[in-house]
UniProtKB/TrEMBL annotation:
This is Arginase. It catalyses: L-arginine + H2O = urea + L-ornithine. InterPro entries: Arginase, Ureohydrolase, Ureohydrolase_dom_sf, Ureohydrolase_Mn_BS. NCBIfam families: rocF_arginase. It comes from Roseibium litorale. GO terms for molecular function: arginase activity. The keyword Hydrolase applies. Its cofactor is Mn(2+). Keywords: Arginine metabolism, Hydrolase, Manganese, Metal-binding. Pathway: Nitrogen metabolism; urea cycle; L-ornithine and urea from L-arginine: step 1/1. It holds the Pfam family Arginase. CDD domains: Arginase (cd09989). Its EC number is 3.5.3.1. The keyword Chaperone does not apply.
Length: 309
């Protein structure tokens, strides 16, 4: 396993409520770095990024919120991800709301293109985040990053003139979805994105759904970016998120996904998105996310301390 690099992205401009900017420091307080070191990894923390300055950015959709700020963070994160993605390191982007993926996935895609390898994306989320800037009705830009990553039209120049390297929609799997707007549904169907909702998990189990996707990544010699949103999980298990949707993945299902990802050896970068410490219960969700990250990096059931969440 290459050295792990932690990157803080204190972003809340894409969400509908405040608090996610505290996410990176909550992961630090919950002991993310220490947990990964205990698993035998070399870990460094780059600290929190700063937003790039933005001038003259606009869009015809009047409901968009905080467009300049989200654009600034997208450019900063894209530059960081494009740089880290070509180095022999494993970046972990500590968010921040899910608009961080506008920059992280695009940057990792640029790095994959430089390596001549396809990028695959596993999107662990209650939402598909497949709105364009044209179709969003809420104006909350954390609902748009996967559409941007897949090269859909309807976005302004978020990358400041740099080339965009779209992810093939066929290389995306959304797991755990249970809240998809009609516009998103139409776009997902039109672009043939694989969407495994909670009914599919109930009927088939996560292992049967994730295994074929990982086999496709391996067959294509692909790089795999995992984007984990807190609301992938059942809200009673992980309450620290501003977009709770009942009926999410269980604690055990989430760990199984992470353990399978570790076993595959295919994951090359990770987002931890939408942790809002202001909504947490004594750090419960932050600790759970640290535990899930530990499972991705090799922690087994016998290694995990027993504690009450």
């Amino acid at each position: 396993m290459p050295p792990i690099v932690l990157v803080g992205a204190p972003v809340e401009a894409g969400a509908g409520r405040r608090g996610c900017l505290m996410g990176p420091d909550a992961y630090r307080t919950a002991g993310l770095k220490e947990a990964l070191i205990q698993l035998g990894h070399s870990v460094s923390d780059l600290g929190n990024l700063k937003m790039a300055p933005v001038q003259d950015i606009s869009h015809s959709n009047p409901v968009l919120k905080n467009l300049a700020e989200v654009t600034g963070w997208t450019r900063a994160l894209h530059a960081t991800a494009a740089d880290l993605g070509v180095k022999p390191v494993f970046p972990v982007y500590m968010g921040g709301d899910h608009s961080i993926a506008l920059g992280t996935v695009a940057g990792q895609a640029s790095a994959a293109a430089a390596k001549g390898r396809p990028l695959f994306v596993l999107w662990l989320d209650a939402h598909s985040d497949f709105h364009s800037f044209e179709t969003t009705e809420s104006g909350n830009l954390h609902g748009t990053p996967l559409a941007f990553a897949c090269g859909l039209p309807g976005f302004p120049d978020l990358l400041n003139g740099l080339p965009r390297h779209p992810v093939d929609p066929a290389n995306v799997m959304i797991l755990g979805a249970r809240s998809i707007d009609p516009h998103e549904r139409d776009l997902l169907l039109a672009h043939d994105v694989s969407v495994c909702d909670m009914r599919m998990i109930d009927e088939s189990g996560v292992a049967a759904l994730v295994k074929p996707f990982l086999e496709r990544v391996r067959a294509a010699d692909g790089l795999l970016h995992v984007s984990l949103d807190v609301d992938f999980l059942e809200p009673e298990t992980a309450p620290a998120v501003g977009t709770t949707v009942p009926g999410g993945a269980t604690f055990r299902e989430a760990h199984l996904v992470m353990e399978m990802l570790h076993d595959s050896g295919l994951v090359t970068s990770l987002d931890l998105a939408e942790l809002n410490p202001f909504l947490d219960d004594r750090g419960r969700t932050a600790r759970l996310m640290v535990d899930l990250t530990g499972s991705l990096f090799g922690r087994r059931v016998f290694d995990r301390p027993t504690r009450s969440f």
